[in-house]
């Protein structure tokens, strides 16, 4: 497919810092190659802004190959843009047409305060993870070989699928309730399915859910938006598993 | 939400089976069957306990729903300038709180129309019928009797009075001699009858409310299973189909009853 160039109009959320009010600003950007990625297009816009002696747009990015979970952006009303199963960095401008107006907004969640422009603070996810998303490993010199523990292939696959969550926050961003249950469900599931995760299973789910609630995320009403918008295709099954783990732990825990 | 929601689904089935007696049997036979059913529903101790569980479930489901919705609204203080949620979720799923509120409004009016009159204000008259027989002179003599348990013939006149809802007493001696029935059947029939000026509005409101209930169940039924952690490849399809079938069939059957009464 031959590369072509398109001219677009961008409506981008600009906000100086967490304490100021933001607003959508309109920019025209010409000669955007349809082979460029969405982030490369934003790079091109920033070059234009710098040349005009204006403040460039701040946005998060790191690996630019869809695995780090750093990029975000709510593009034309959808997390990571119109393509399913991709992060913003893997979204290409060939998905857009000449003359399009593209809305670019940060994730909207009370638990993800805006740092600047399109950059949000997702450390709430880190705190949830720290509350229970780990296993204890004996390092006293008698560590077992991982393969000596037999694990059913189906369970290993499901744990791996859950562990594919990159913590980008698209689930929270696209949920009408701003709920983080898909993220927490995946993080609980990746351990709940494996024997190594059994030791802390009860405390893990209780602590992670408590931390999730403390961070100010909303509640899951099973609309399924998160599953559709998740770039890694994390299944709602993980939320159900977390609910099972939570009920089980809630009934048996003495805390 | 899931437990109360599923309990209320079973309540709907029970309520529907009772309502269907309004159209399955006609005439005096239908009137008797329905009033006997209404008597059973308000006197059986097990049903009394069940009805309290139902009131509590409705209240809990509504209050918890409102509290969760408030939390959910707080979780996103600034809305998106451009949002495209129809690409990732169904409309009923996104409007559960609105649909639920409308259902609650319906329940309030529905209880004011029937439940309140039956249980609190006791406005519902006693079930009675008129027997006409010609006397020796060929004059037709009419007398009104209560419809009673064991078909005891107790005339509806000043010698007998009603106490405790359905108990029939001899007025002078204050002795209970029988038990009658409240005529809820006639109240319902008149409420939705063409002869009643407000019936058309009542029927339309009822049918619209059943549409709302249908949308609420369309998402709610299967959603309850997911909330309880019951998500399994083997059963998901069945839960989905049963939920959607339930969401169509139950409100549909509820809605045709007032329509049939109105068209009679």
Topology:
The complex is a heterodimer of chains A (255) and B (264).
Chain A: E1 5-14, E2 23-33, H1 38-51, E3 74-75, E4 78-79, E5 101-105, E6 114-116, E7 119-120, H2 123-132, H3 153-163, H4 170-174, H5 181-192, H6 201-214, H7 225-229, H8 237-252
Parallel strand pairs in A: 1-5
Antiparallel strand pairs in A: 1-2, 3-4, 3-5, 6-7
Helix pairs in contact in A: 2-5, 2-6, 3-5, 5-6, 5-8, 6-8
Chain B: H1 2-24, H2 27-43, H3 45-74, H4 91-94, H5 96-119, E1 128-134, E2 140-146, E3 154-155, E4 160-163, E5 167-170, E6 175-179, H6 184-192, H7 199-227, H8 233-263
Antiparallel strand pairs in B: 1-2, 2-3, 4-5, 5-6
Helix pairs in contact in B: 1-2, 1-3, 1-7, 1-8, 3-5, 5-7, 7-8
Would you write up a description of this structure?
The complex is a heterodimer of chains A (255) and B (264). Chain A has 255 residues and is an alpha+beta fold. Chain A has two domains: 5-115, Ubiquitin-like (UB roll); 122-138 and 149-252, Alpha-helical ferredoxin (Fumarate Reductase Iron-sulfur Protein, Chain B, domain 2, Orthogonal Bundle), CATH 1.10.1060. Chain A contains eight helices and seven strands. Chain A has helices at 38-51, 123-132, 153-163, 170-174, 181-192, 201-214, 225-229, 237-252, and strands at 5-14, 23-33, 74-75, 78-79, 101-105, 114-116, 119-120. A five-stranded mixed beta sheet of chain A has the order 2-1-5-3-4. In chain A, strands 6-7 form a two-stranded antiparallel sheet. In chain A, 44% of the residues are buried. The longest helix of chain B is centred in the last third of the chain and has 31 residues, at 233-263. The relative contact order of chain B is 0.13. By secondary structure, chain B is mainly alpha-helical. Chain B has two domains: 2-77 and 88-124 and 194-263, no CATH class; 128-180, no CATH class. The chains are: A alpha+beta (255), B mainly alpha (264). Chains A and B meet through helix 7 and helix 8 of A and helix 3 and helix 7 of B.
């Amino acid at each position: 497919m031959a590369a072509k160039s398109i001219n677009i109009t961008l409506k981008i959320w600009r906000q100086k810092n967490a304490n100021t009010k933001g607003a959508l600003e309109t920019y025209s950007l010409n000669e955007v190659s349809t082979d460029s990625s969405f982030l490369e297009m934003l790079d091109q816009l920033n070059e234009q802004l710098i040349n005009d002696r204006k403040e460039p747009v701040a946005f998060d990015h790191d690996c630019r190959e869809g695995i780090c979970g750093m990029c975000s952006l709510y593009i034309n009303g959808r997390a990571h843009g119109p393509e399913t199963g991709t992060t913003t960095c893997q979204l290409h401008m060939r998905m857009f047409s000449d003359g399009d107006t593209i809305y670019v907004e940060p994730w909207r969640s009370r638990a993800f305060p805006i740092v600047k422009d399109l950059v949000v603070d997702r450390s709430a996810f880190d705190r949830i993870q720290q509350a229970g998303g780990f296993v204890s490993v004996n390092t006293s010199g008698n560590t077992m070989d991982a393969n000596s523990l037999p694990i059913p292939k189906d369970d290993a696959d499901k744990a791996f699928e859950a562990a594919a969550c990159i913590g980008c926050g698209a689930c929270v961003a696209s949920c009408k309730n701003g709920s983080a249950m898909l993220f927490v469900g995946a993080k609980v599931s990746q351990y709940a399915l494996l024997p190594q995760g059994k030791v802390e299973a009860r405390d893990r789910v209780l602590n992670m859910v408590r931390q999730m609630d403390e961070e100010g995320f909303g509640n899951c009403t099973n609309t399924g938006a998160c599953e559709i918008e998740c770039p890694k295709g994390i299944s709602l099954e993980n939320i159900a598993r977390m609910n099972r783990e939570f009920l089980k732990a809630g009934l048996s825990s003495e805390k | 939400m899931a437990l109360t929601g599923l309990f209320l689904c079973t309540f709907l089935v029970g309520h529907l089976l009772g309502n269907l007696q309004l159209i399955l049997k006609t005439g005096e036979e239908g009137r008797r069957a329905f009033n006997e059913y209404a008597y059973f529903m308000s006197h059986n101790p097990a049903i009394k306990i069940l009805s309290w569980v139902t009131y509590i479930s409705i209240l809990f489901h509504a209050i918890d729903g409102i509290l969760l919705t408030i939390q959910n609204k707080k979780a996103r203080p600034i809305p998106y300038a451009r949002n495209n949620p129809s690409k990732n979720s169904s409309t009923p799923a996104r409007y559960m709180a609105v649909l639920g509120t409308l259902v609650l409004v319906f329940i309030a009016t529905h209880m004011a129309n029937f439940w309140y009159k039956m249980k609190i204000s006791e406005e519902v008259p006693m079930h009675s019928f008129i027997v006409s027989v010609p006397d020796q002179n060929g004059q037709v003599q009419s007398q009104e009797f209560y419809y009673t348990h064991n078909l005891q013939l107790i005339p509806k006149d000043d010698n007998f009075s009603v106490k405790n809802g359905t108990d029939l007493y001899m007025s002078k001696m204050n002795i209970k001699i029988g038990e009658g029935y409240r005529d809820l059947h006639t109240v319902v029939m008149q409420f939705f009858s063409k002869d009643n000026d407000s019936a058309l509005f009542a029927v339309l409101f009822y049918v619209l409310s059943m549409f709302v209930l249908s949308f609420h169940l369309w998402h709610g039924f299967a959603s309850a299973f997911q909330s309880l952690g019951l998500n399994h490849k083997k059963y998901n399809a069945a839960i989905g189909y049963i939920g959607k079938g339930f969401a169509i069939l139950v409100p549909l059957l509820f809605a045709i009853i007032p329509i049939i009464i109105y068209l009679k």
